[in-house]
Batch of 3 targets.
Target 1
Amino acid sequence: MSTYHIIYNRLSRSNTGELEAHMLDEIMAGESLKYWNVEDIGDYHEFFRNIPTDDKIIVAGGDGTLNRFINDTDCCNVLQDVYFFPAGSGNDFARDIGKKKHCEPFEMRKFISNLPAVTVNGEERRFFNSVSLGLDAQVCLEADRLKSAGRKSVNYAVLAVKCIFTKYKFCDAVVTDGDGNRREFKDVLLAITTKGRYFGGGVKISPNQDRNDPDENMTFIIAHNLPAWKALIVFASIVIGKHFSFRKNVTVIEGKEFTVEFSQPTPIQIDGETVVGQSKYHAAAKHTVEL
């Protein structure tokens, strides 16, 4: 009988990652299950070598846990079948492919063969959903701080409004696409490159993006020329999916490669995980991930 090896992050979802993962006890009743906290896996090459090839791997968690797994295991030559059990706060990847939270685990290999990559400060990482500079990254950073301080739940919409008037510093940006076309923008609220349609726990930021696009195109969206009062309006329009109606303030570019440079350091989010003190990222499509 094959064993399902369930990889989870105990610290995810305000330290409830283990509890969420153990929902599989009921969903997969009768199966042989073994649980592994990511913090206890020191070497993934050795980890996979010690698991029979006919056993199965299940990654249990949200977008951040999935992102960490794919980056930690790149080129590990994983012979076992890999599944995903969506059990995070946002679950934007699962939502994008029509899956619901706590659904039956589904096979992942076809979704990770051509993930895009983002390079920040010389370090390259893969991403499933999006990478961005701007307000959403600032909100992710502030939410992480609140959770670290013991806050059980965070209202992201309220936090975003507070950040617009306090923490977030509007910047200028230079965007260069893969053909070398260079564009300049003032007073930027958000500069996001998307592989999927959703970000921020169900906000359809990029409704026309197709992660299975045969040409591997991504969608770049930048909200710009925004004083704080208008930024509130545009932010609200993003939440309800009406932001493309602001044609003077929201620019959309399709392509395989984008370099984004801000005029000053600001947080960057990669699938909801933040990197601080940076002012540039380079995103490129069609980056093969070998498992």
Target 2
Amino acid sequence: MTNLIIRRFLLMIPLLFAMSIVIFLLAKLQPGDAFTGQMDPSVDASYYEEQREKLGLNESIPVQYMKWGNNVLHGELGDSIRYKRPVMDLIKERMPNTILLGVVSLVITYLIAFPLGVLSGRKPYSTIDYSIQFINYLMLAIPSFVAGVFAIYIFAFQLGWFPFSGSVAIGLESGTFEYYISKLYHTILPGTVLGLLSTASYVQFLRNDIIENSRKDYVRTARSKGLSESKIYNKHILRNSVIPIVTFFGADVLSVFGGAVITETIFSYPGIGKLLIDAISGKDYPLMMALLLFFSFLGLLANLISDIAYSIVDPRIKSN
């Protein structure tokens, strides 16, 4: 296990280096810069040229990359052009909101997907199974932004059950019990939308895996020994079917952050996803490149977590 982790971390180094080049080029090849289209006519144009010179935007792309890469290696991500604050401070400020959103959505995903998948798998081709399949296909067909808009309209505007934006009520003192309750309350609606949209694939996968395992020889052997259907499903079929689901946890982490980009934007939820959209739309290069590099690292880390989880839940598998 230790050798696996060490090898994967060493492999991350050249991959992150290659990703950093792609991220930097994608950011710099965009037309214009952070000042394009936002210049105040009353301000002398020389001021903006001085700012571009100060930020190194007039230097060649290779020189800019070398300076940026050197700063990243030393843990210096620079200052945001738009927010006039250190990039690291912005990420630290928004990260707890995205983590909370991710935890809520994952809890909802597993609480719903697991029982529905088991029920559908144990009663294949029944009315219950077809009903669950219909809901699955419906959830797969609905885009996240459409689901978010409908959720806001119904549960925020029409019913008034949840707030439609923000991460905490105004005026609450940070660190108090009411503050944390308010943060959780503001996260329920976007977390539910993000979680529900992720359940369909897991329900389908678990259902199909249970049906496939129920037809294998070891199940026929268990039935021939007189074991009850409940014991066969719970001890044999379900145990083997859950193994692939557990290994998806790493991918779940990445998908949550990826899905949060759209969900946070729709709900005006101040997390990492919305921060990335703001950085891209505002051509805030330091913030944009730092966040994209973070997402790249998170993708590599998710794969490592999946491999480790697979080795833990099934010791027969030896990861190389």
Target 3
Amino acid sequence: MRFIDLTHQLKNDIMVYPGDPLFKLKNINDTNDYSLFEIKGNLHTGTHIDAPYHYIANGKKVKNILLENLIGKANVFNLNLINHEKEINLEDIETLYKIGQKKYSNNHDLEKRLKKIIILKTSWCNNWGEKNYFTENPFISKEVANIFVENNISGVAIDTPSVDSYGENKIHKILLKNNIWIVENLTNMSKISEGICKAFFIPLNIDAEASFVRAFIEIQ
């Protein structure tokens, strides 16, 4: 059994969303007997999970998300070779196929194949560290978000800083109000292929709207 880690390393001065507090990780012990690190920043730093409470009043916090909804079979959709603009539309998913397998022919065919977790591989993670990473990312269309809602998806994970375009939040609200958690800023996506895998998105047991998360998949 092997695993592929899809998580950015949390380290001092990691890049953060424009306007968010800077992330600081510092050893605050002055002696040589032991180390004691202090964290400053916010929970949306690096690879993280958004719980419904992030945008939905009285929505679930991270502590309320069941572990069984954070672990399970996932569809990995490879979008990096599709000729689309920044908005990820349903057509971008329906035309995906694995070598030797039948193309998705219609909505019903697509829906039958959806698992409880969706991983969207856009390859935007390759721009991590660039000035445009947070401002020009691919994002999910309302059409795609609604398909996920209709099919009772537990969570959506993506290798971009947001499921929305820069400065917007409508896709967050569609997903979160339907108790679909969101994981953003995945990395190492070149190491995974389109298909079905077992995925793990493990946050802190925290009374908050978001959490750092350890994201990884199991490969045979």
